[in-house]
Amino acid sequence: MARSTIFFICFLTLTALHGIHAVEYLVNNRATTTPGGIRFRNELGAEYTKQRMAAASEFIWRIFQQNTPAERINRPQVILFVDQESKYVAYVVNNEIHVHDDYIENIKGDIKWDFNGVLFHEMTHIWQNGLGKAPVAVTEVIADYVRLKANYIPAHWVKPGGGDRWDQGYDVTARFFDYCNGLKNGFVAELNKKMKDGYSDSYFVDLLGKNVNQLWTDYKANSDSSYTGSAAANSGVVKSDFKNSADVNSGAEHSVTVNSGDAFADTSVNCMAYSAETFVARSNNLNHAAGLKFDPG
Ligand SMILES: [Zn+2]
Q: How far is the CA of 87 from the centre of ligand 1 (A)?
């Protein structure tokens, strides 16, 4: 009897501790009557989405090497909304992920695979440091790095070694970050920790012992020199509209440059995730932005 009582108390204690740190995942489909909202309900659904939100969180915490709840951003609740009106395909504000029903409606190919790519990107914004402090371009690249590691990368991404500049953004810089993390497992985790207070190019020296331009030179030298898949994309052609998936698939977006200062005047909104077929970010700001640059500081 005594033993079972002790066991019961332990059980209660564990349950209580778990309750303190458990994250509650919620889904609110506010587009129940639109084609995209109906497709969400029929082909994805709230239960599946909540499972994937939890799985993405576990994955991201591992990448950030946040083994205990105390190391993570404290968010008792994360809510995913399916919205009818949005400038973006998906974005994050605080503990909310907003997904546009129009994006769901127009997913081509495997809906779950495409949705997970966007979801893992957006969930990274939920848990990462630096939003509103570090340049948008850097936080976006970390979200794309997570997407890369989760293996939800669109076919049009450059191969490892592709690109012309380390700060080109999107797939190019996500691949570069993957190389950096290969030099020191935990680079991205450490960078995320440092980004609590902002961002500086000097973090590369702090973490890897070389400045970022030297690292990029090493990266290019180590990559397969026969790979030229992104050459055309990086020729300097600037597209001003991401909507056409033909443009995306041609690789033209690799030369599109987004100024982190222009991209989101409201830094509380974080997005730039894109579907495998169509760029998610379709704001006028993004479409007219120029010069992706990681502003130090
Ligand atoms: Zn994003």
A: 14
Which of these, 243, 239, 289, lies nearest to 264 by C-alpha position?
A: 289
User: Ligand 1: distance of its center to the CA of 280 in Å?
Assistant: 9
Delineate the domains of the chain, giving CATH numbers in brackets. 23-288 (1.10.390)
Distance 142 CA to ligand 1 centre (A): 9
- DSSP assigned state of 255: G
Task: Quote the DSSP letter at residue 293.
Answer: B
Cα 170 to middle of ligand 1, angstroms? 10
Residue 132: per-residue pLDDT: 85
Partnered with residue 29 across adjacent β-strands are: 82
Place of tokens 């579907």: 275
What separation in Å is there between the alpha carbon of 95 and the centre of ligand 1?
14
- DSSP letters of 53-121? HHHHHHHHHHHTT--SGGGS---SEEEEEEESS-SBSEEEETTEEEEEHHHHHT--S-HHHHHHHHHHH
User: Is residue 120 within 8 Å of residue 63, measured between CB atoms?
Assistant: no
Amino acid identity of 31? A
**CA of residue 136 to ligand 1 center, whole Å:** 8
How many angstroms is it from 258 CA to the middle of ligand 1? 13
Centroid of chain to Cα 13: 35
CA of 3 to the centre of ligand 1 (A): 51
Q: What confidence tens digit (pLDDT) does each residue in 87-127 have?
A: 888 999 999 999 999 999 999 999 999 999 999 999 999 99
The answer to whether residues 125 and 92 touch, using CB atoms and an 8 Å cutoff, is: yes
Distances (CA, A) of 237 to 4, 26, 121, 247, 254: 71, 42, 26, 11, 9
What's the 271 CA to ligand 1 centre distance in angstroms? 3
Backbone angles phi, psi at 67, to 5 degrees: -80, -20
pTM value? Answer: 0.75
